[in-house]
Design a protein that fits this description.
Layout lengths: L14 H58 L2 E2 L6 E2 L9 H14 L1
Antiparallel strand pairs: 1-2
């Protein structure tokens, strides 16, 4: 047994003591099985929740990465109070964009 790294446990000669030991071991196994079953149910519940939310989380992460990627292309002005960026927009949307920028500046 020692060569295989196995544990040896004492086993009593008395039948009554053997029955008691069997009962104790059975009770411990039963408790462990209850714990394992509860763990499996909890894991399945969590994985189901994650599975339902994963698509939304992935979309949110992609959006945030896109925003930070864009912000990383901005430059900081000399006063270090604002970010400066250059870009293009359709001429037909110029007025809407200016209004949005004015509202953003006013709100902040």
């Amino acid at each position: 047994c020692e060569a295989f790294g196995a544990n040896r446990y004492p086993f009593p000669e008395e039948v009554g003591r053997q029955a008691q030991m069997l009962s104790e071991v059975s009770m411990r196994l039963s408790e462990l099985n209850v714990t394992i079953d509860a763990t499996i149910r909890h894991r399945d519940s969590i994985l189901t929740t994650i599975g339902q939310e994963l698509e939304q989380w992935s979309l949110t992460v992609r959006r945030e990465k896109a925003v930070y990627h864009t912000l990383n292309m901005f430059s900081i002005d000399v006063t270090k109070k604002c970010l400066v960026a250059e870009g293009w927009c359709p001429a037909s949307a110029k007025e809407q964009i200016q209004d949005a920028l004015h509202r953003a500046a006013f709100d902040s």
